Amino acid sequence: MKRLAILFLVMALSATSGFGQSKPPSIDKSPLDFSYFPENYPLLKTQDRISGPPIARVIYSRPEKNNRVIFGDLVNYGKVWRLGANENTEIEFFQNVKINNTKINKGRYSLFAIPEKEKWTIILNQVTDLWGAFRYDSTKDIIRVAVPVEKTESITEPLSIFFQKMDSGFGLIIMWDNIRVSLPISL
Q: Which residue among 19, 66, 111, 141 is least enclosed by CB atoms within 10 Å?
């Protein structure tokens, strides 16, 4: 009995010693970011300057340009792109909205894009919680919208996705390198 107790104690100590030696995962080079509409929603809510849920939120990883050629090289023209790095980008609507006169029900969706030189196709897809666009399934698309590409004078180093108030609602703005696209969204 004593030997059994000692054996159990040795096994327990050796099993738990491995837990103390674990390391945290390495820091991601493309940090996760959130953008809300209305802008600064969490801060406004904390300050009691807004009540109720936000209208929309986008969650994405922010890769850097790092002196690379982005569009047409790192991000291929004519192919589905996850709109960021790592996990696919997701957008959540906390109420029903309209995109291109199509009703989009409140809920969470994946965001993809097919970049071209003059226009991008922005895609909302119903499959979430994926890594990259490797398992992208076009049969699960909710909507596809072509938006024009605008060239910017300055370079946006990290991919930036945010919302901007517009006359008829708001826009989802995507900027990286010297490119800017905007997806109009109305209430």
A: 19
Specify the DSSP element, H or E, that contains 17. helix 2-17
- Per the listing, tokens 């994405």 go with 60
What size, in residues, is the chain? 187
Q: Phi first, then psi: what are they for 23, rounded to 5°?
A: -115, 150
pLDDT digits (tens, 9 = 90+) for 138-158: 999 999 999 999 999 999 999
> Which residues, other chains included, contact 77 with Cβ-Cβ below 8 Å and sequence gap of 6+?
71, 115, 116, 117
Contact at 8 Å (CB) between 177 and 143?
Answer: no
Cβ burial of 16 (10 Å; 0-12, 13-18, 19+) is exposed
How many helices (H) and strands (E) in the chain? 2, 10
Query: With bands split at pLDDT 50, 70 and 90, how would you rate the model's confidence at 9?
Result: very low
Instruction: Give how many domains the chain has, as a whole number.
Output: 1
Per residue in 167-183, pLDDT (tens digit) is: 889 999 999 999 999 99
User: Considering the domain boundaries, does residue 56 fall inside one?
Assistant: yes
For residue 136, what are the domain limits? 27-185
pTM, two decimal places? 0.84
